[in-house]
Amino acid sequence: xxxxxxxxEAPRVRRCADAISAAVTQPWTIMEVCGGQTxxxxxxxxxxxxxxxxxxxxxxxxxxxVTPVEILDxxxxxxxxxxxxxxxxxxMLRVPGSRGDLLGARADGxxxxxxxxxxxxxxxxxxxxxxxxxFFAVGFETTAPANALAAKRAVDDGVENFSLLTxxxxxxxxxxxxxxxxxxxxxxxxxxxxxxxxMGFEEYLPLVARHRVPIxxxxxxxxxxxxxxxxxxxxxxxxxxxxxxxxxxxxxxGGNPTALSLLRxxxxxxxxxxxGLGPLPxxxxxxxxxxxxxxxxxxxxxxxxxxxxxxxxxxGLVLQGRIKPDRCPAFGVTCTPETPxxxxxxxxxxxxAAYHRHGRGSRRSGTxxxxxxxxxxx
Amino acid sequence: xxxxxxxxxxxxxxxxxxxxYPNVTLAHGDGGRLTHxxxxxxxxxxxxxxxxxxxxxxxxxDVPGGRAAVTTDSFVVRPLFFPGGDIGSLAVHGTVNxxxxxxxxxxxxxxxxxxxxxxxxxxxxxxARSMGAAARACGVEIVAGDTKVVDRGxxxxxxxxxxxVGVFERDVEIHPGAxxxxxxxxxxxxxxxxxxxxxxxxxxxxxxxxxxxxxxSVAAPALALxxxxxEVHCLRDVTRGxxxxxxxxxxxxxxxSVTLEQDQIPLSPVVRGGSEILxxxxxxxxxxxxxxxxxxxxxxxxxxxxxxxxxxxxxxCAIGQVRVDGRPTVELRTSVGTTRVVERLSxxxxxxxx
Lengths: 378, 354
Prior knowledge:
The structure holds two protein chains of two kinds. By secondary structure, chain A is an alpha/beta fold. Chain A has three domains: 5-64 and 181-245, HypD, alpha/beta domain 1 (Rossmann fold); 68-170 and 255-299, HypD, alpha/beta domain 2 (Rossmann fold), CATH 3.40.50; 315-361, no CATH class. Helix content of chain A is 36%, strand content 19%. Chain B is α+β, with helices and mostly antiparallel strands. The A-B interface holds A 1, 3, 8, 10, 13-14, 36, 42-46, 48-49, 63-64, 89-94, 103, 114, 116, 138-140, 142-143, 194, 222, 336-340, 346-349, 353, 356-360, 362-363 and B 20, 25-27, 33-34, 203, 205, 207-209, 269-270, 272-274, 279-281, 327, 329, 334-343, 346-348, 350-354.
């Protein structure tokens, strides 16, 4: 296995940080969109290297975090049906819905299995023709192609006992929602490199033009992230608002054509509700045409329900970049990785979990909490 | 330590249900925060004695004619056989290592088996032979045992408990309470291979390079430190919860802080790559053949020289230093020169989505 160590070398990291310090003259708020970037920032303490003027806020790009309670409840309902094998990526298992998490369903006897790929779930379906096998298809544009492939193979090969519970979401509508909010304080974005590797980055051009906001396609290593911040700062300081690609080693303007054509064949753009952001038009992917045959919500005739989220959990504000995780009154008190109130405390990509795991906020337990805005939709 | 006041425990209500856990969860057994809480809030309070409050892997007890080390460990692993080991060898090495971490020479083990109805006899034979071979290699004898069978579906084939007795060949005080500010933290080799190997075997994950568990006895290098006359303040094997949890446990029990240097922690390429792909932090992956030795700084070079003579600890290196700092914390100086706090394992490690 090879590593891109050159993107972690201390001297290069320092040079990037120094260049940011030299470029900045006033305060700027920059949001990193992806949870993988949040995790790298906290894990490497990259914000410690930045000048005080730069405030990095954490975005909604954690698939586990933005999956709404309703979908979790649907997953719960389906998983408990007799004869169902419910397959999911590991980190969805501990996200609380209104009736507990999927681990709890498993403890009660549901057949819930962790898989590492939707193709594994399809394999389980082939091996268990008498059982209904459901895959929990959650995620952004990055995980959608593999899920599309699983749906296509299932339909092409006539695997009739396989279905997908889909809750795919798209990045650009979430950025639009954040920018359109009256409470918005984000002045530039580090776009998620992996998402752009699939989708390309032309779809961000309208956002840049409409909101006059710099967007820089950014990778996940320390040097990548600081380079993305540097390009944002340089734009902000001279009043430019452009789309730039700071992750050219992985991202092409047109994205991955094979993955895109598969996505267009299997999925169509649909409205989705997001945890923290509420319902957003044209913000997700749903199965289309003949692939609706493997839509688990149809197969199990699951009705839509509206569920209230925990009032104590401020994850909506965290996901919009309006507060940092350690400013939530529940952080580390009633909300911990063992007893998460919201998804961002569960996922490896979640900002709250990253803060908790790496000791952010825990040393400030003696200080009085600042006033925290209450939850509100943008 | 000696002034423990032990009220009538029968008068207490169960301390755990007052928290948010009316039932045991899987996370109570992962060696992280909840395991720690379970031990501190429930078992130590129910059993309370000075030996337990030392929070070490085993206890040193006075017996006529000298001191003995006593410890016990239970082994639950799926699959039973994995690259680099199996539940049988693990059950021997785990208890042997715990005795050695007290500074004692392991002598005798007992073995308790919980077998699931339907377990193939051939499988049990393979496990037993593996235990026998491991015991002979470690110079210990398995001198007593017990077997129970549970209904089909109520166990993963076989669970094993081993208890061990070791003897102290010299007068040593090896436990977190002996750790001093300025001591160096030595790690005997690259951490995390056991955790990743078992995960890969269980979930049938294929990595480019084969990943083998690090499971092994570390008694020989640990005892060689004492034989060489090196002043060892604490020994701790790195098991569930990984390197991070082991260091945090020592720091908290010692009431001191530790600074770890990320660049000094030797990670094998396969653990580094595999944990990045799965979104796991290698500092929290289990080992079963690695240990920490906390020694005074002037003794560190000699200690490293001794450890590197053994194959199982040939990559030993100093990874950090103990210091005094208000509240005991473990801090990691990252490769890019920043610092972050290292906490014990919290919540279960679950592979991520993307």
